[in-house]
């Protein structure tokens, strides 16, 4: 193989390498497992393709039901992976959603968005929004997915993500809050936003973001820096939970987004766990 063809253009270790010939070598979260029925918890899962053109899909999770007529909260979950690796089928995320679905007793939708650098930001934002709109289309109880029609409570919706997924979740909530009624999206009421190890640019540039989001405004971009977003105080949810590990470098993003909510006049509750 010609060495010129394999010249590295950019690398974000230990996550991926991108070569000048367009090839991307992912180093993490490359394994995939199919949906199934978990023998320990009874949680069922299945995949649904939303958009054949982009490949955007979701993996749905349904807990073991003690009362099939009872409506359960809906969790929309967006996985992490530096915007560039992973999927709902990654064992780490799949197993986490099984546990979360069982313990919280929720119906869950895990979003499979397009990955950078083949699909640079804002593609992931658009894909997540497409998935949320698709989920909301079931609020009339006549959508294409029976689990959502029969079991999801669209007045109790939570959007949660970790790392890059937390950034995407924040942007989903920002976009949903542009509606006049604030907390509803075609019959969907998002009441909670969960940001776990959130990936934000608060006070310094980020080489990964510069590479995978070349059209951004950097530190002045409200999609990347909550302190640059004048709409934070008007987010339509009533609860925000921010979590980060004490020695995780992403904790600075968590502290920054917490400060942005506190300083914005946001009227809901904001809790941070470090």
Describe this structure in words.
The chain has 274 residues and is of the alpha/beta class. Helices cover 24% and strands 26% of the residues. It has 6 helices and 12 strands. The strands form 2 sheets. Strands 4, 5, 6, 7, 8, 9, 10, 11 and 12 form a 9-stranded mixed sheet that branches. A 3-stranded antiparallel sheet has the order 1-2-3, with no helix packed on it. A hairpin with a 4-residue loop joins strand 2 (16-19) and strand 3 (24-26). It is globular. The relative contact order is 0.12. The model has no long low-confidence stretch (mean pLDDT 94).
Could you provide a short overview of the structure?
Pfam families: Abhydrolase_3. The protein is 24% helix and 26% strand.
Written as H for each helix and E for each strand, in order along the chain, the element string is EEEEEEHEHHEHEEHEHE
Question: Termini, distance in Å?
Answer: 48 Å
Q: What's the Cα radius of gyration?
A: 19 Å
Q: Show unreliable segments.
A: none
Bulk shape:
globular
Q: How large is the count of helical segments? A: 6
- Quaternary structure annotation: single chain
Describe the biggest sheet?
9 strands, mixed
User: How much of the residues is beta strand, in percent?
Assistant: 25-35%
Mean pLDDT score: 94
């Amino acid at each position: 193989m010609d060495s010129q063809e394999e010249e590295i253009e950019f690398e974000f270790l230990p996550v991926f390498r991108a070569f000048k010939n367009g090839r991307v070598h992912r180093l993490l979260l490359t394994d995939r497992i199919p949906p199934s029925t978990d023998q320990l918890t009874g949680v069922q899962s299945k995949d649904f393709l939303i958009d054949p053109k982009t490949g955007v899909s979701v993996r749905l999770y349904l807990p073991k039901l003690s009362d099939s007529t009872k409506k359960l909260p809906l969790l929309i979950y967006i996985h992490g992976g530096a915007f560039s690796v992973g999927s709902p089928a990654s064992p780490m995320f799949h197993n986490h959603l099984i546990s979360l679905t069982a313990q919280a007793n929720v119906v869950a939708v895990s979003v499979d968005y397009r990955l950078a650098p083949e699909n640079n930001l804002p593609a992931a934002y658009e894909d997540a929004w497409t998935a949320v709109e698709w989920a909301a289309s079931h609020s009339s109880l006549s959508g294409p997915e029976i689990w959502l029609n029969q079991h999801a409570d669209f007045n109790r919706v939570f959007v949660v993500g970790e790392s890059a997924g937390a950034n995407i979740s924040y942007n989903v909530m920002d976009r949903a809050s542009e509606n006049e009624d604030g907390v509803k999206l075609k019959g969907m009421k998002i009441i909670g936003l969960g940001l776990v190890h959130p990936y934000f640019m608060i006070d310094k540039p980020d080489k990964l973001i510069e590479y995978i989001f070349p059209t951004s405004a950097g530190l002045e971009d409200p999609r990347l820096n909550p302190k640059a977003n004048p709409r934070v105080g008007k987010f339509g949810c009533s609860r925000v939970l921010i979590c980060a590990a004490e020695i995780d470098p992403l904790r600075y993003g968590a502290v920054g987004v917490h400060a942005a909510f506190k300083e914005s006049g946001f009227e809901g509750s904001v809790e941070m766990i470090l």
